[in-house]
Design a protein that fits this description.
The complex is a heterotetramer of chains A (211), B (278), C (252) and D (217). By secondary structure, chain B is α/β, with parallel strands linked by helices. Chain B has twelve helices and six strands. Chain B has helices at residues 6-11, 15-31, 42-50, 73-89, 103-113, 115-119, 136-145, 147-150, 186-198, 211-219, 229-240, 245-277, and strands spanning 61-67, 93-98, 127-132, 175-182, 201-206, 225-228. Chain B is elongated and about 75 Å long. The longest helix of chain D has 34 residues, at 33-66. Classes of the chains: A mainly alpha (211), B alpha/beta (278), C alpha/beta (252), D mainly alpha (217).
């Protein structure tokens, strides 16, 4: 992209730059008036955009079909509006109906969808031995199996980690820590790339490097 | 506090010091590039091979999904851009779509970054921008069976029946391959609803954070190729021979990654020494 | 197999809940994060500062992976709120999920009511932010301005986890974290004093209640875990000899 | 009667929806029209509920401004920014069908919302650094393992790792693709079990997270 020339775009560019510094004044300095300014603008604009986008979405998926003859769409519309009974003390309980539907859908999808990939598939891939392959594949196979079993034991909730259970749960914890460390490390690249993008933007606006 | 020795101090450095050092470390390489070589790994190479040469013929239709928003540009856009360039050069026709509501900005950036390639192509004939979709996995499933119901019109509100290229795209049978670049889950929707269901060729231009969850799918052959994070983007830029944003960013990535490891080492040296003294 | 597994799990939980109702006592192992809640509230009372609770923004109640976590977080909020009301400590509930807002409000209201102080409930103690980045910036601002003594960060978190938790760390708050989102666990582990990992988040409400049949359901879960351990063990040993009987069975 | 409406019917509705989802999963090879309709409804309800949050947030800032609470100037700023953005967006949408067709909305979207979004997203980079600095400390064997796994993965992700030592990417990749597998799988297994158990208790009316205050005893 080239450095903008239109005056509105240039102002826009600098607006973004200044707002960025205002937000970063929090980690780089401390909470201050500039941060507070950017924070409140941000919260307001985010809310407004979400409301506009949601409204658009609602019109497209619910109201337009309803007006087009899909009368069933009146149900979610009414249920949705019922959530607003929260604002009227004596009818507050009515808001539980739409929430019941949301929660039911959440549980239903969650429970039915969790068993196969999270439990069964995980065990299947753990116990499927390498078909060919070298020594390392077998070591990995053993490592994963021992790791999964011992860390499952770690999560037994109705037993204290003492006596016979002490050694395996202890080992299980170590496997868990390795997993957490690796995941932490993995995320670093992504986060730093984001920040790199901002560092680049910082320099580009100042024309220190080309845009 | 005055009896703190250097080791104790090392352990308790004000976090703002880190933040400054980090931010400056990220900036310096942009001004003074170092240019360490980037090695191309197999999963990235497979992705590139899969979208070039005999694997794509002129006129083939390809879907490219923007599963990332503006905030993830630095991670996803470079790889995505290289793929779009490569596909356009092969003469493929591309359907662009996206799951983030700032998708238009990402599309505009792509057109800008691959200006020369888009210049020779005609909208509606060689590529089309369908815009934003909602509805998650069921929308992607529906796209495979009846694309026109998901997108009755393109992003600019032109009815798909008036777009020449869309006459050849009704469902999964018409698509040669799908490329998805995601911060969220759309790639996995394509995996289940297209790749697993119909055997469509699929590749992911993923964020680094999802690298270890995406990789098994690459090994299992669900993804014919996989680019991981901005580093994958830099590798793709090496493959196409046009250093771009990701290559430039790699120096910063190198410097910052080295910095964090050095900081951890320093903290640990301080910790171990102060424990020994105590 | 999924169906059998579901029935088996439900049956095991139901059976042990039944035993619990019959008077059998089940003990849940010590969960330090739960034991730390009164301490966190006590700290806030001593310092005269509020306690902050927030459930993360990963998804609404109808989301299959995040919704249940949000509910589990609200179960914990109930306990935190009751303890706080007892101790006369203010609670700030920062809830970025609009559909959960009603539940949070009810939970807080009930906590005040059950402690006989309904008049002290202040609707302003519940804050809403729309959108992830706005939620994050808003919460950071709150942390520095109000300086809560303790924070309870439980529920479905996304990338805001590390920011909010480090923000809390910077003001020296005592922090209790908990999530089932694998990719955010390392950050909460790194920044919180106590942590509810995965299943522990869901079990927390039951553990707090001490209710025998609730504890029974946890016993039921443990029985299933033993079963899975056995299946994995046997499957592994057979797998070594390339007998894929168990794997095939599970794939059914 | 009122308790039935306030409590039992709510339970029943939740239970029925949950069971319908199961029925679809186990007995319908494709989407079932009943449940897919319910899912669409759920998304719509969720969308409508955003307004409730909006009302609460706006209420708080109006009160803050009216009562001249501490920082009320910022509440006023919030209200002004909100009103401008909301009205211009709605103007654009109602007038042309696309919100971004309004110049002001579109300008604010591109130059305020977008950079602020990227900025806030990237702020995690700072915090992840200080979190690593404090967490990655070899206090005991557990922490040491986390530290080693973390550092190898970090270095293997950047090209510089290989320049330092060719073994780094090899070890790093082992941690990424094998080392972390048991940990990640166990979270999947026990997390799923925990969720099922929580759902089971909730459907039986034991968990109070959902039915908080439902009885109003």
């Amino acid at each position: 992209m080239a450095y903008p020339t239109a005056i509105l775009d240039v102002i826009g560019l600098w607006t973004g730059w200044v707002l960025m510094l205002m937000i970063y004044s929090y980690p780089l300095y401390k909470e201050n008036v500039a941060y507070r300014f950017a924070e409140h603008i941000f919260v307001a604009i985010f809310l407004a955009i979400n409301l506009v986008v949601n409204f658009t979405y609602l019109m497209n998926t619910c109201v337009t079909p309803l007006l087009g003859g899909n009368l069933l769409m009146v149900v979610p519309l009414i249920l949705g509006i019922l959530i607003y009974t929260m604002l009227i003390p004596e009818y507050r309980w009515v808001s539980r109906y739409p929430i019941a539907l949301l929660v039911g859908a959440g549980f239903g999808l969650g429970i039915r969808g969790a068993i196969k990939p999270s439990i069964l598939d995980a065990i299947v891939s753990t116990i499927t031995a390498p078909s060919a392959g070298g020594m390392m594949d077998w070591v990995n196979f053993l490592y994963i199996a021992v790791g999964l079993v011992s860390s499952m034991l770690y999560f037994l909730l109705t037993y204290e980690h003492t006596g016979l259970l002490q050694p395996p749960t202890r080992i299980g914890r170590l496997f868990i820590m390795i997993g957490l460390g690796a995941y932490f490390g993995n995320t670093v690249l992504f986060r730093f790339t984001m920040l790199t993008g901002r560092a680049q933007f910082f320099l580009q606006v100042l024309k220190i490097i080309p845009m | 506090m005055s009896d703190q020795n250097i080791f104790d101090k090392l352990q308790n450095i004000d976090r703002r010091v880190f933040y400054w050092v980090l931010f400056i470390t990220l900036m310096v390489p942009f001004v003074r590039p170092i240019g360490l070589p980037v090695k191309v790994v197999q999963n990235t190479r497979d992705l590139y091979l899969g979208i070039t040469g005999d694997n794509v013929k002129p006129g083939d239709i390809v879907i490219m999904n923007f599963g990332y928003g503006v905030s993830a540009w630095s991670e996803c856009a470079p790889g995505f851009t290289v793929c779009a360039k490569a596909l356009l050069r092969e003469g493929a026709r591309i359907v662009f779509m996206g799951s983030q509501y700032d998708v238009e900005l990402s599309f505009n950036k792509l057109k800008n970054d691959a200006k020369a390639d888009f210049a020779t192509k005609e909208y509606g004939v060689d590529y089309v921008f369908l815009g934003y979709f909602t509805g998650g996995e069921s929308a992607i499933a529906q796209l495979a069976t009846d694309a026109w119901t998901v997108y009755p019109a393109d992003h600019y509100r032109t009815s798909v029946s008036d777009i020449p290229m869309m006459q050849d795209f009704h469902g999964w049978q018409d698509i040669t391959l799908v490329l998805s670049s995601d911060t969220g889950d759309v790639g996995s929707y394509f995996l289940r609803q297209w790749q697993a269901a119909h055997g469509t060729k699929l590749a992911e231009i993923g964020i680094a954070m999802n690298g270890s969850t995406d990789y098994p799918y690459y090994l299992a052959g669900n993804y014919f190729g996989l680019s991981i994070g901005s580093r994958g983007g830099a590798e793709l830029e090496v493959l196409i021979g046009e250093p771009g944003e990701a290559t430039t960013a790699m120096d910063s990535i190198n410097a910052s990654h080295l910095l964090i490891v050095l900081a951890v080492i320093v903290a640990n040296v301080g910790y171990l020494l102060s424990r020994r003294q105590a | 197999m999924t169906f059998i597994m579901l029935i088996l799990t439900f049956a095991a939980m139901y059976y042990y809940m039944y035993l619990g109702k019959q008077g059998k006592v089940f003990k849940v192992r010590t969960l330090p994060a739960i034991q730390a809640i009164p301490e966190a509230v006590g700290r806030a009372a001593e310092m005269g500062q509020p306690v902050m609770w927030t459930p993360g923004i990963a998804g609404g109640l109808n989301d299959s992976t995040q919704g249940p976590q949000t509910l589990a977080a609200i179960s914990i909020l109930e306990y935190v709120a009751e303890e706080a009301v007892k101790a006369g400590v203010k609670i700030a509930a920062i809830c970025p999920l609009p559909d959960a807002l009603a539940l949070v409000e009810e939970t807080m209201r009930t906590a005040y009511m059950s402690q006989g102080k309904p008049e002290e409930f202040d609707i302003d103690s519940i804050r809403f932010f729309s959108g992830q980045s706005a939620y994050m910036t808003g919460t950071l601002g709150y942390l520095q301005r109000e300086k809560p003594a303790s924070t309870v960060l439980v529920g479905g978190f996304y990338y805001e986890a590390v920011v909010i938790a480090e923000g809390g760390n910077a003001i020296g708050a005592m922090q209790i974290g908990g999530t089932n989102n694998t990719h955010q666990m390392p950050f909460l582990v790194a920044t919180c004093d106590y942590m509810l990992l995965a299943e522990e988040l869901y079990a927390a409400g039951a553990a707090i209640s001490g209710n025998p049949d609730m504890l029974g359901s946890i016993k039921g879960e443990d029985i299933i875990k033993w079963l899975l351990v056995a299946v994995t063990g046997v499957g592994f040993l057979l797998g070594v000899f390339h007998i894929n009987f168990v794997a095939d069975l599970l794939r059914m | 009667m009122s308790n039935i409406l306030k409590r039992e019917v709510v339970f029943a509705l939740t239970g029925v929806v949950t069971v319908l989802m199961f029925v679809e999963y186990f007995f319908f090879p494709q989407d079932w029209i009943v449940t897919s309709t319910i899912r669409t409804w759920a998304v719509i309800i969720y969308n409508i509920s955003l307004g409730l949050g909006g009302i609460r947030l706006i209420q708080q800032h109006i009160m803050g401004t009216q009562r001249r609470r501490e920082n009320w100037q910022f509440s006023a700023l919030f209200l002004v920014a909100f009103v401008i953005m909301f009205l211009t967006g709605m103007w654009g949408y109602l007038g042309t069908g696309v919100a971004t067709n309004n110049g002001i909305y579109s300008w604010l979207f591109n130059n305020v919302y977008t950079p602020l979004g990227s900025t806030a997203y990237a702020i995690t980079g700072f915090y992840i650094f200080s979190a690593a600095y404090r967490a990655f400390r070899a206090r005991n064997l557990d922490a040491a393992l986390m530290l080693i796994a973390g550092c190898f993965v970090i270095l293997s992700n950047a090209p510089v790792g290989e320049v330092i030592w060719s073994g780094i990417p090899v070890i790093g990749e082992w941690f990424r693709f094998v080392g972390q597998v048991p940990g990640m799988r166990v979270f999947g297994v026990v997390g799923a079990l925990g969720m099922i158990a929580y759902g089971f208790r909730a459907l039986l009316g034991k968990e109070r997270g959902f039915y908080a205050g439902g009885a109003e005893e």
